[in-house]
Amino acid sequence: MADILEIDGLTAGYGPLRVLHDVSFRVAEGERVGLVGLNGHGKTTLLRAVASLVGWQSGSIRLAGREIGGTRSTGPGRRTPGIVRAGLAMAPQGDAIFPGLTVAQHLDCGAYTPKAWAERRRRREMVFDIFPPLRKLEHALVGRLSGGERRMVSVGRALMVEAKLYLIDEPSLGLAPKISASVIEALFALPQDGRAMVIAEQNVALLSGRVDRMVGMHAGRLRGDVGHVSLH
Ligand SMILES: Nc1ncnc2c1ncn2[C@@H]1O[C@H](COP(=O)(O)OP(=O)(O)OP(=O)(O)O)[C@@H](O)[C@H]1O
Description:
Shape: globular
Strand content: 25-35%
Number of strands: 10
Distance between the termini: 33 Å
Protein name: ATP-binding cassette domain-containing protein
Structural class: alpha/beta
Organism: Neotabrizicola shimadae
Helix content: 25-40%
Keywords: Amino-acid transport, ATP-binding, Nucleotide-binding, Transport
Low-confidence stretches: 228-232
Bound molecules: adenosine-5'-triphosphate
Order of helices and strands: EEEHEEHEHHHHEHEHEE
Domain ABC transporter: 5-231
InterPro entries: AAA+_ATPase, ABC_transporter-like_ATP-bd, ABC_transporter-like_CS, BCAA_Transport_ATP-bd_LivF, P-loop_NTPase
Strand order of the largest sheet: 6-7-8-3-9-10
Oligomer: single chain
């Protein structure tokens, strides 16, 4: 199986702060990888670097064989639209919800490519199949939803494009255990269909047995396969 994501020698940070140190990381087509580690060790920064959203970065990041990394001088976010068109989708940490939009409008924000926009009704239906509680809330304002429902909207928005690689940042964050388990279960109920996923999580137990592989992140460095290793 070819690698959809190939990261080599990635160093990244914010202002004077270096958060990632010489990170190399591979994800195969269709693979589901758990990126685990404690709060503040760089999981989010790694996902954001792939989407070109960090303060600065150097090193190589290849998505489907195309270089999307390198040293950036244009500023965070400037290259992100091109990276999304190249096959990346991301559900950021903490929902990034627009409270004044309805669920349907919010999901449509994720239908970023022309193809996804043309198919947005069908893709919304797919999201409602995955997260059934959202169906009856289609026209409700997102600002009025519960934490679990908002997380479903946030993850669902990333699923509105047909991406080669999905980055899902802490789907369980701030949710009651039962609710986070249902969000994760729904995510894994998606047919794999060649979609690779990297899921950043502090809660290792939530991913255990569900992902193909887990890698640990500690102090800005990857620790290889940590499927059975305590991170503390
Ligand atoms: N925008 C920013 N500006 C400055 N420092 C930041 C910024 N974002 C994160 N950091 C710092 O980078 C380090 C790594 O943070 P990061 O969010 O990547 O960790 P994490 O493992 O994903 O943890 P979390 O679960 O809290 O997101 C932390 O020390 C954090 O304080």
